[in-house]
Here is the input.
Amino acid sequence: MLRHPYLSILAFVALAFGGSAQAAEPELLLVIKNHRFEPVELKVPSGQRVKLVVHNQDSTPEEFESHSLNREKIIPGGAKTTLYIGPLKPGSYPFFGEYNEATAKGAVVAE
Here is the structure.
């Protein structure tokens, strides 16, 4: 079987530059403790997708909810979950815990 010499070169270039050229999305940790989110404000780069790890350190479940981020996720007590948000335009995107709305509040700020 004959192979075209340019196919080998193209395959090499694709392997060398294809997957490694992209940087991984930023990863942020949001903790639920004493029915509060910590930190209260998460700063993220605008225009970029972000991996958000939410760790509920309380013994009771809490819900991460944000209408502006279009996310809603229940996190059982002692559990972690991963959410992806963005890319976002510059601005503030509030979130809250539906089970403890009086104390569990915060915002993602895209800059």
Remarks:
- The beta strands are 27-33, 36-38, 41-44, 50-56, 62-66, 71-75, 80-85, 91-97, 105-110.
- DSSP finds one helix and nine strands in the chain.
